[in-house]
Specification:
alpha+beta, 12 helices, transmembrane helix, ATP binding
Amino acid sequence: MASALFRLIGAMGRNLIVANTFGSFALLTLFALGGVVLSREQVKKWWIWGYWASPLMYGQNAIVVNEFLGKSWSHIPPNTMEPLGIQVLKARGFFTDAYWYWIGVGALFGFVILFNFGFSIALAYLNPFGNSKTIKSDDNEETARGAIELSVPGGGSSHRRGSENVEIRRGSRNLSRISSDRPAFNTNGRRGMVLPFQQHSITFDEIKYSVDMPEEMRSQGVKEDKLVLLKEVSGAFRPGVLTALMGVSGAGKTTLMDVLAGRKTGGYIEGNITISGYPKKQETFARIAGYCEQNDIHSPLVTVYESLLYSAWLRLPSDVNSDTRK
């Protein structure tokens, strides 16, 4: 019930500040009206609705009824007519009927369903605060002035500023039409290009990866047909949160990342991988995600352009000319 309540508060708050403010007030109210800080008789009549709406009240009544109606508290003190357990319950305003145990259990299950239903509704209909954007800086002075000039051999060229269309013509034939965005400037004078995009989350549930048992291990008496490398691993990667996957050497960190990225071409993969709630498809996943392996190390002695150019010279066929490589 508490987990469902915290999820509901987080989904309704949608950021840390709102969730902490609203959550602190909600928890303070539940604790104060749950029958622990204030007993039922001490709660004002105009606040009694909070007592009946507090899930802590039902849990607390179920616990105390289960405890103080037991045999350990059935002793009747001298000069009294009621067992000691009944007297303790009445002193703190708790109910003395044994059926309140089952009422409390049923109410807690009901709150679990209610809070999770509200959590699902909040996720479906409440949008996050603000827009997800990234800024790509560009130090090209020519582009900083907002001028774009395109030319075609044998034809004319034209350029326009801002967000106007750039039209290229050869003779009287329109070759292409593109649109240039106006460079964005912030208060510090730094210019960048705003690129809005939709963030995605990756969740994986009970991922199991196994390969055929090596012959060397079979010769040593291993009877299993498969060697399990990942044993039902589950987790999630949230957008905008730097996540560290940690473990000892040989724990399967790289194997798990290779499985999630679709780099494993052999073996047997079981489990579910979803992208923002949708089943992962490798052909579309490769278009929205990048995967840098641990051996892809960039040398600090060369620039990024030099590294890419060097990679192009190594990877592209020999019939590709130099200009195309660049």
